[in-house]
Design goal:
single chain, about 90 residues
């Protein structure tokens, strides 16, 4: 779904105080407003409508896996004929 930006007016000193205390909780005004808006949406909009909108939205894109670095394979050795050692093939007596 497309995101829409919401603009709010709020007293600057109050916002500064709010940001100060939220920082102590390792959060931000933006995060808390997103949580509050999501909670309001889930409480007010009927479940059937939410499900309809969720189905209509494309599924979230899965992150692509990073490409594996190519590793050269060593050349394959020729198979030995049955019952022969490397020395026997080269004509060296054992």
């Amino acid at each position: 779904m497309q995101k829409t930006e919401i603009m709010l007016s709020f007293d600057g000193e109050k916002l500064d105080a709010l940001e100060f205390y939220l920082k102590k909780e390792n959060t931000t005004v933006q995060k808390r407003m997103n949580e509050a808006l999501t909670e309001l949406y889930e409480r007010i909009v009927p479940e059937a409508v939410r499900e309809f909108l969720d189905r209509k939205a494309p599924p979230p894109a899965r992150p692509k896996r990073p490409a594996r670095p190519s590793v050269e394979k060593p050349p394959e050795k020729a198979p030995r004929p049955e019952g022969q050692t490397a020395l026997e093939r080269n004509g060296d007596p054992t």
